[in-house]
Structure formats: structure tokens, C-alpha cells
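Next comes a single protein record:
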Amino acid sequence: MIAGIEIENFTVFGGLDIPLSPRINVIIGSNGTGKTHLLKAIYALAIASQPASAVEGSEKDIDTQLTNKLLRVFSPGESRIGALRARGASGGARLCLKGSDDTQVTVSFNSRSKGVQLERDARSEAQSRPVFIPTKEVLSLVRAMQDPNHDRATVEMIFDDTYLDLAALLANPGFEDEAASLAEDPRLSNIVRELVALVGGRYRWTNDGGFQFEPGGYQERADPERSRAKAAQMYQDSTVLRFVSKGGDPLSSGMTAEGYRKIGVLHRLLCNGAINPGSTGIVLWDEPEANLNPALIKEVVQVLLELSRNGQQIILATHDYVLLKWFDLLMDSGKEDHIRFHALRRDDGTDSLTVETSENYSLISKTAISDTFAELFDEDVARALGGAKH
């Protein structure tokens, strides 16, 4: 688990120290306050905290790889690490990821550095591979991103590594008939079923390296092998959960709604083990509400809460009042739900960014998000009463 992050003189940040919940963290703030930069910083540091045995080469090679990863994740205009140092800063840049075991992974550099310097506590717990889900959906782009006939340099000019890394995870083999894996891990059974029910089907990997949408849903079906077993005396002992297609021709992923594709991404990552609560690394999701029908947001929040209850640490960045309010309404202290809100603000006088952290939803009442919705409500009431509109 990640306990927190410290940032000094990095991109838009002068200095931040953010404690993270082991369950769900929600980053809020106006445009330009660095929400996506914060998610990307945590992502890059979580990759840096991978065990040394997972990276081939010397410590110098690891520093070089991390330097390249930061450049590929942030894509600064100048392809040099010094360009990621905050403008006008008097000191060097420093990023520090704190583990739940009180150890740290620190990256530092200055404006003239050719690479970063990585310091990793020898006692540090091995963080599992993080997952970053960017604002735009990736499912329909996997085929193009992964096609060996496409010029890699051109692909990398179009997409930063948060997109390319996710495409690689989505292309990893998964269980196309999920019955066996769902039976082994009942925690995922309900979550996977809910995701498929939300969109009325699933996205399946095709032989040409892309995804197609197959309408259908999960049903309990008899398992011939288990039904013949003498030990299978109870109904639930002789049935398995299987996806049942509604028939008809599947649709290419690009012909389905983008919001559905975003849910399909989460389904695929659960089905191929890239997300496995309690085992895999932190999940970072930038604006999960983007292009999502507001009617689906409640169910998405329920899925995220269920993942966190099973040990998945999650960080979200959002502008959406509906998403925030559903977290407030659906949070269940009896199930040990824990949500920590982090509000990023820009000081009008100094133009510096600050963060306010709270475990109380009332923090939202001080943000532009709630102010905007309150203004909208007031205008609606004024019109209904025949008052002047502004």
C-alpha cells in the first residue's frame, strides 16, 4: 500500500504532502490545479518502487529507465528531465512515495540534470504494478497501438505512456470463458457480473488484436463434469457461472458507446488479473465519469467501493458532483469504507497550489464544483418563480 506522496518543485507543484487512504482517495480541483499531474507522479513513482529484481541492469540503468518513463508519462515540450522542474523554483525537484511500512522511494533532479537520481529504501516493501486508466478510453485503440506494422515512434508521439501501458495490459491474455477463475475467486464474481450487466455484454479479444462487443450476460449453468461427480450433492456444487451470449453478430468496439468501453476496460483488467484486489498495485483513474451516462455513475461507484472493500487501493481525479455525491451516499462505515478527499486549490495572490485533505465530505462544499451546482439550482429556482435570470 502507498501511505502518501511528497512533491517539491515538480511541474505545477511547489510543495505538497498528501497522506493517502489505503482504500479510496478522491482528488478534486479546478482545471489547471494539477489533478492529472498528481496521478501521473504517483504512477511513475509506483513503477520506480518495483523491486530491483524486476528491472534488469545496474542502478544507473534503472535511473535511466525511470528518467525515460517520466518523460514518456508527462511528455514535456522539451525532451529533457529538467523541463519537469517547476518554473521559477529556487531548488531542485523531488518526489517521494511513502510505503505503508514507513519506507520511502525518492526521485530527485534539477533543471540541468540529464537524468533522475533514485533512492530506494532497502527495507521497502515491493509495490505491485500500478494501473493507470486515463480520461479517454483505450479499448478501441489497442489494436492500432499494438500493431507491429505501425511505426512505434509515431505512436509514441500521439500517446503518452499512460495510454500505451494500459493498452499493453489490456492485450495480456485473459480468461475468455471466465467460469473457472470466477469460481476460484468469488470476490470478483459479483463485480464482474455487475460490470457486464451495466453494458449488456462484454468485450472479447479477437484474433486480429482488437476487441469486439458481445451482447449477453452471466448465468448459473450446469457443469457436466462437476455434475457427474459423486461429491456434488448440492445445486451450487454442480453449477458454474458462465457468460451466455444473446446471439447475433458482435460489434467492433469502436461502434459502441465510449462510456461502455470505459467499463469494458475495467472488466478486461479484472478478467486478465491486471487488477486483483489485495494482490496487484494501486489503481489510478483520471475522470472516470468522462463520457459516462450519469445513470451509470451510481453503479460504477458501487463497483469501486466493492473493489476497495476487498483490498484494492484506488485514487480518482474528478470534476463531477454526481460521482462525488454517490460516494457520499453509498459509503458504508459498517463495511469499513474509507474515502479521503484531497482538494487542490490555486492561491489567487501567490499562484501557488495547495491541498486540503479531509475524510469528511463537507470539504466538497468549499469547492468550485459545489458552487457551480448551487448556482445552477438557484438559477433554476429563480426561473420557476418568475425571477430574473443572470
Summary: The radius of gyration is 23 Å. The chain has a mean pLDDT of 85. The chain has twelve helices and 15 strands. Residues 368-384 form the longest helix (17 residues).
